[in-house]
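Sample log: Phosphotyrosine protein phosphatase I domain-containing protein.
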Amino acid sequence: MNVLFICSRNQWRSPTAEHVFRRYPGVNARSAGTQRHARKTVSPAILSWADIICVMEEKHKNSILADFSHLVQHKPVYVLDIPDEYHFMDPQLITLLEDIVPERLGLRIPSLTR
């Protein structure tokens, strides 16, 4: 399963999610940002790669739907509702991600976490 995590600048939230979910069996995780100056910006190539897209906020979903609707129209896009108030690998952010994402994606939690 190829899972793409998206936030604004691809600086804290989505790279943390990418890092955390890389350890899940059967998951290939990448991340990108919607802003022009993001570390890695959302592109047609990365959206085509993704089977599932997880965005941190509704505005990220709206952005990719506005710019790339033809690429994501048949893919699930989950809004995680995680505000931009965490730094990279913040323990609270990791806990939020581990509480929300596995259930949304139907993943079993690996024994490495928690």
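Observation: The two ends are 22 Å apart (CA to CA).
Observation: DSSP finds four helices and four strands in the chain.
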